Amino acid sequence: MAWLRRLPRRVPGTRVASTAPSADPNDLFVVLDRFHWAIAIVTVAGSTAFLLALMVMRAEQRRDIIGILRLIGVSSRSILFEVLLEGLLIAVAGALFGVLLAVASQGAINRFFQWRFDTTLVFVRVTAAIAWKAVAFAVPLGVAAGLAASWTLLRRSVVSLVGR
Amino acid sequence: MTSRALAWRTAAAEPARAGLAIAGVAVIGALLFDMLMLSQGLLVSFRKMLDTSGYDVRVVASDAFPARVDLTNASAIAADIAGLPEVRQVTIVRTDRAVVLVPGHAPTDVALLNVSAGAERQGWRVVEGVDLGALGRPESAAPAVISRPLSRALGLAPGSPLPLRALTSDAASALPILRFTVVGIADFQFENDGPHVLATTFEAFQRARASVSSDVADVILVASRSSTDAASTVAAIAGRRKDVHAFSNDQIVERFNENGFAYFRQISFVLSTITLGFAFLLVATLLTVAVNQRLGQVAALRALGVSRRRIASTLVWESALLVGTGGLLSLPLGWILALVLDRILRDMPNIPDALHFFVFEPRLALWHLALLAATGLAAVVYPVWVATRLPIAATLRLETVS
Q: What pTM value is reported for the model?
């Protein structure tokens, strides 16, 4: 790419710029990328709070069952492992469903906003890399939320779990 | 017990669930609030920036504004416009690119600026030394008022020599080096993180460009008399000069709204819509799951004689508690988040210091709360339908058997 620097010297008045993504932190698209990341992080934070709320409700709903399992001698570790596996299954299924939903709805979203703004710009494009990133975020988050919600129950005494 | 008190007790009975739901609404609400601020922020900020400059009309060479086209015979045009009865003040603005060649420092790009004599105080504020022309220097000297960042970068102070060479097409040129002398250091109104600013007199500006005969400018700024509005001045200029195009501040803001700021308008609308949909789904899911867990309790209340209306009212209050508290918390949270996002976006090149992407307006806070209230009401519809339609006897029997 040295010729990029040489050309303006040989042909005065010409300006040469590479079309490759810029490494300059102040480049327009690099800044927009940072902005989109920041919004994504905020969205993940908000949805994590909701996910935790749902998981807490689900764990409370199963308080009696966990109490009975503890009473018949199943160890806390085994129950935690079961919760972990269940959480993993739900998180994977949820993440896959989310990706499928995004793939299925991207056409409709693009068509609506292209109509709204009278443009051919593509607003949503689900690529393999984005899908993997979403799964990589969602699965550990789902598992962690399930574990955190169940952990509070497992720390309680058996008597309080069965309501005695 | 009133519906409101019952809703409060239900939420207080499960503080973890209520706290997490409020936190979720607060974070999502903060994002919504920010998107509302982003939708108008640039326009409000840009408008404020234009108005504070003291001019209400801009005269340019081409209708393709803001694309830059040189305005030729600028002095003659300015004199003609100044003669209009609607006009109070006319200022010619000329800019060019140059490179400062201070020994011991790398060549530094600067924006060379010249405004009509007497209009300096509207373009910059001298913080050290004196303004252009204050010393009555002979024509051979080229006085320069430089920005504070340029002064810091090159260690320049009033009295420092400053060799400068103008650029042609942003490339190195064979134009002669002109020796300027720093007379003052100033804060420039439209300074940005792009090239540093160096202001000088018309004579020195022309000598730096080695084009004493040409009289081109970027823009002519016009201030209307207090008794005249900008639209009348624009009409008067259009009537007098057919070779230029005049725009009021309103027209410029409108043009930027259509072209320059379209991306942020679009992304704010897209994200506001998605955020609202997201908040609706989450609150609706949370309330529906909560109602499904309390079917027995609801059936028992109905069996005791509590009306459907009161059950529905309790759920609406519960939703209002979650969404209302989260919504109020989202205002300060959104404010903090806006500062962070604004800082990220202001890393973009050539953004003036005075321009902001997120600007607070009281009406936006009201809009925000109204949208969240509507979302909370919409989200409660299905849980209310479930709670008010359940068969009392069958539900109680099922609860007892299970």
A: 0.75
